[in-house]
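Researcher: First entry.
Model:
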Amino acid sequence: MTPQTTQPTPMPDEPKRPNKETRGPRSLFAVASLSVVVGAFTGGVGALFRVFLHSADGWRTDFIVRAHSWGLPGLLSVVLGIALISSLAAWMVSRFAPGASGSGIPNVECQLRAGRFENPLPIVIVKFIGGLLAIGGGLVLGREGPTVQMGSGIGDLVGRAFQRNESECRLLLAAGAGAGLATAFNAPIAGAIFVLEELTGSFEIAVTATTLGASASAICVSRVFLGQSPDFQVPALGFLNFGVFSVSLVIGMLMGLLGVAYNRCILAGLNLSSRFTQFRGALRAAAIGAFVGVVGWFMPLLIGAGDRLTQDILDGKILLGALANGFLLHFFLGPVSYATRAPGGLFAPMLTVGAQAGTLFFMLWGHFPYLNATSQHFAIIGIAAFFSSVVRAPITGIILAVELTGSFSLFLPMLGATFAAIAIASLLKEPPIYDSETR
């Protein structure tokens, strides 16, 4: 008798792929067309997520203001409320979708590079609801983490629904992630560049075409709900004198040091929280949420995603003392909030810290008449340089800063600052934050 061969049984928690073929895309036109579908769905979901977050931010701030008239009961209401909401977000992750914890970008990178696929539907649902609870409740986290992972999940779901092969599903997953970032910050080019520079490290035509298609369609849909203006309103800024290039190198070196310190704070927070095993996820998040609630009671603008705070910084409304105190607190609130492992990203807090640091540099050292610079110039340069130091994606950092503010006159100083920031971080042998997280 001829011996029969048996096929290996797939693991029960490993979802089947629609097609085990691993070669390149069978039809670039077909997968590029599907990327437009992925982007449209991601843009709609991401826009809805942002609208709900904006409402939650307003409700939270109004509640804190009203609670001040209640005295001690008001303080307890704010602290316990944020603690409860934070713990609920963390519990949802641990109970229904562990892959939805934290930013989600390292998870997406693992899926793209190592082929470790998960069922995307629970992650998308938990990321949406848990992100609303965590960020809307007051944790200092970014909306880009949920939207990037939701977009990647939508890309994977569309690929499965249309029976694409594994290579095409990966392309759609990456394209959805880029569409998610584009929707999070109304920044289509930055979303596409982030995929090419950070997630895939490839500018191949298939990756480029699908990513651009998804980002473009996502922005077309999201702007129906969010409008077309940049996220931050900045007056038209003139071109700076050539002498600013040397100053941009100095601020870049400082941002490089700050970025290294920020990365180490994030990793220290994650490592410290993992040691307290008796405080399981929900209790750990509740304790951190209570601390954030205390900060929010005294300084409501410092908690949450920080968009209003960043706008005030760019408007030059914050005095030196308040800016310095806010910078010190916000520098640590982001890593502390991230240690909850609730759904939420790192980008938005980084943007605020970068703007704070750039403005502080201008206030303390930047009054050089021949530079014809303003605090807004240095705030935007700080955003690009600090982002590049932490994430080590300089092109994304520069394009993101430009698209967020609509300022196109700072490419030269941003190039100098990001170069210096990356050079310092590399000299100190500090790996990018997402590489550190996946180790």
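Researcher: Second entry.
Model:
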Amino acid sequence: MSGEWAFSDEEFSTLATRIVALGREFFADYGQPFYLVSLIPVGTEAARGSSYGGTGLTHSFALFLTRGMTLAKQEGGGGIAWLQAGIA
């Protein structure tokens, strides 16, 4: 994580850890001991609105968020947990 967010480092870490653990359990995929989740800010501090996206990489996930995003479900979309769970 880089920068300040609308949620704590601990809240994000707990969510990411839970999603990775559930995915590993569901697919019985314990072959790799580590899985990297990065959180990268996009846009400017003054930008209005919110945006989020991400990409699955080899044993990792890069998450891109505007700084005002929360971990709550987003109107018209599933939110951060849905995004991570779908790709992680």
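Model: Note on the second entry: The first strand starts at residue 36 and ends at 41.
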